[in-house]
Design goal:
Elements: H1 2-31, H2 35-47, H3 49-60, H4 64-89, E1 92-93, H5 96-117, E2 121-122, H6 124-154, H7 169-200, H8 205-216, H9 219-230, H10 234-259, E3 264-265, H11 268-289, E4 295-296, H12 298-319, H13 326-353, H14 355-361
Antiparallel strand pairs: 1-4, 2-3
């Protein structure tokens, strides 16, 4: 039964990701919205459905610390592991708009959440502030994109190549909905199967929760972004990650805080380790993305994935009876993190000076 659940979930994830990417890219063409914006909104919000479900259920049941931990952990997974894995498949061409607007918004939302929970919890009016932020961001993003697309078509040279006729809107919407349903079902089945297998190996509930369950809610983002990258829809792949992170901070925590009977709790570990790691991961996106041609290369993908492996290692080690030594955090904080920023900034500076090298690597 465990193998059947796991394999069935994997099939649902692959089929669901394919349907979601196809529907999203066609819908973008049909309604005059850039694929990047569809990735930032429709795809990102849809693939964040598991995080929303887990956080809302945890909030209503009084497990308010899980609500914040789930959203923060998913953001770390999205940036470090998903972007890293996508860059390993194919160097990612990052839209300049992400560097100029969305990444700063992602960083700002992360810092805002940190400031709001420094006192140990997220009260209802603070949750309402976060939710108002996602409403405003989504409305502005879609309106701005439609205006830009209309302006581009108006100034397009006459006699250009005719664009392919997109499928009817209801077909694309149907693909989107089918993809979202299959992604949610597939991620649940895979998590259930993996948990059963981990228990059969004698792993503790704590280790299972820190690894399998926390990553499980991000499986839709992982499957969607990997498939989009493989199919060349790299704007959707990156937009999905950045948009999901914005959604997790503003919508998941906002709605979770509004439906919770008590304020959402942020324990000392979340405030002192998890949220700073999340902010650092968001911050390092700026120098990595800020290069000529806005290219994220394979070696940068390795750096991101290695950083996530280090973070998970620390979580598991710290959960053991002995606990992780303080030197682990000190090395990460004062050596690895500054070194990573320095390397990323140096690479971005080099790329700005040698755009021909970037163009050669982008293929």
């Amino acid at each position: 039964m465990t193998v059947i659940l796991f394999l069935g979930g994997l099939v649902c994830l692959v089929v669901g990701a394919e349907a979601l990417v196809r529907g999203a890219s066609s819908l973008a063409l049909a309604v005059g919205v850039a694929p990047l914006v569809v990735g930032l909104t429709v795809v990102a919000f849809g693939t964040s459905a598991p995080e929303m479900a887990v956080s809302a259920a945890a909030s209503r049941s009084g497990q308010t610390d899980i609500a914040i931990g789930n959203a923060v952990g998913s953001n770390i997974f999205n940036v470090l592991l998903i972007l890293g894995a996508c860059a390993l498949i194919r160097p990612l061409l990052i839209a300049w708009r992400l560097v100029r607007l969305e990444v700063p918004i992602m960083i700002g939302a992360s810092v805002l959440v940190w400031v709001l929970v420094l006192d140990g919890d997220l009260v209802r009016w603070e949750a309402a502030l976060l939710f108002a932020g996602i409403v405003g961001y989504t409305t502005w993003t879609i309106r701005a994109s439609r205006k830009e697309t209309a302006a581009a078509l108006e100034h397009a040279a006459p006699g250009g190549e005719p664009q392919a006729t997109p499928a009817p809107w209801y077909v694309n919407v149907g693909l989107l909905l089918l993809g979202l349903v299959l992604l949610v079902v597939g991620s649940n089945w895979m998590v259930d199967g993996a948990v059963e297998f981990a228990r059969s190996l004698g792993l503790s509930e704590l280790v299972i929760g820190l690894t399998i369950v926390s990553a499980g809610t991000s499986l839709p983002e992982l499957a969607t972004s990997l498939l989009a990258t493989y199919r060349g829809e790299r704007e959707i792949a990156v937009g999905n990650v950045v948009g999901s992170n914005i959604f997790n901070m503003l919508a998941v925590l906002g709605i979770g805080g509004l439906v919770a009977p008590t304020p959402l709790e942020a324990n000392e570990f979340v405030r002192g380790v998890d949220i700073p790691v999340m902010i650092a991961a968001a911050l390092i996106c700026l120098p990595v993305f800020f290069s000529s041609g806005t290219l994220m290369r394979r070696w940068e993908g390795v750096m991101f994935a290695a950083a996530y492996a280090t973070y998970v290692t620390y979580l598991i080690w710290n959960a053991s009876d002995a606990g992780a030594p303080d030197v682990f955090v000190d090395v990460a904080r004062f050596v690895a993190l500054p070194l990573g920023f320095a390397v990323a900034i140096a690479a971005a500076w080099r790329d700005r000076a040698h755009p021909d090298l970037v163009a050669a690597r982008a293929g």
